[in-house]
Amino acid sequence: MTPRILILADINSTHTQKWVLGLANDNFKIGIFSFNASKNNWFSCHENITCLNKRKTKASLNLLNKLMYLLFWPKLIYQIYKFKPDVIHSHYASSYGLLGALTFFKPYIVSAWGSDVMDFPKKNFLNKLILKFVLFRANKICVTSTVLKKRDRCLHKKTSLYYSIWC
């Protein structure tokens, strides 16, 4: 049986595209759930890549309406039920990470990017609580450098958590 991974990320991000294409080329079945519409349907020629949240326009989300992410939650829960992933992997802990953490799905992986860890929690107390919640819910946290790993560990002290550093 082919492993199924649900990726929560911006479908137009080059990082997302590299992750998804790499996993799809290794014969994983990939579902992508994004707040935004795809600009060029880069995934359409791959049988094992499916866009799970087909949008026609870009979602207009900013820091003030982070709570708008909650509007995507019922759609995501439905797609989890329909796609039946073996694992969920969120990219960008401060946005898709929050949505993924609210599903309480396990196993759950979060990739924290620089601004997620270095800037987002410093803006206000609510942001810091959101990031701590996301990191607490994760079974595994991926970061791109030892600096981010150290900063993550300051925010989250769960000793049984393993970090992956990929550059």
Low-confidence stretches: none
Q: What is the name of the CATH class?
A: Alpha Beta
SSE string: EHEEHEHEHHHEHE
**Class derived from helix and strand content:** alpha/beta
Identify the CATH homologous superfamily: Glycogen Phosphorylase B
Secondary structure: number of strands: 7
- Beta-strand proportion: 15-25%
Strand order of the largest sheet: 3-2-1-4-5-6-7
Average of pLDDT: 81
The total number of structural domains is 1
Cα distance, first to last residue? Answer: 30 Å
Amount of helix: 25-40%
Anisotropy-based shape: globular
User: What about the largest sheet?
Assistant: 7 strands, parallel
Question: In the CATH classification, which architecture applies?
Answer: 3-Layer(aba) Sandwich
Layout of SSEs?
Layout: E1 4-8, H1 14-25, E2 29-33, E3 49-51, H2 73-83, E4 87-91, H3 96-101, E5 108-111, H4 114-118, H5 120-123, H6 125-137, E6 140-143, H7 146-155, E7 162-165
Parallel strand pairs: 1-2, 1-4, 2-3, 4-5, 5-6, 6-7
Explain this structure to me?
The chain is an alpha/beta fold and 167 residues long. It has a single domain, classed as Rossmann fold, CATH 3.40.50.2000. The chain is 37% helix and 18% strand. It has 7 helices and 7 strands. The protein has helices spanning 14-25, 73-83, 96-101, 114-118, 120-123, 125-137, 146-155; strands at 4-8, 29-33, 49-51, 87-91, 108-111, 140-143, 162-165. It has a 7-stranded parallel sheet, sandwiched between helices. Strand 1, helix 1 and strand 2 form a beta-alpha-beta unit. The longest helix is centred in the last third of the chain and has 13 residues, at 125-137. The model has no long low-confidence stretch (mean pLDDT 81).
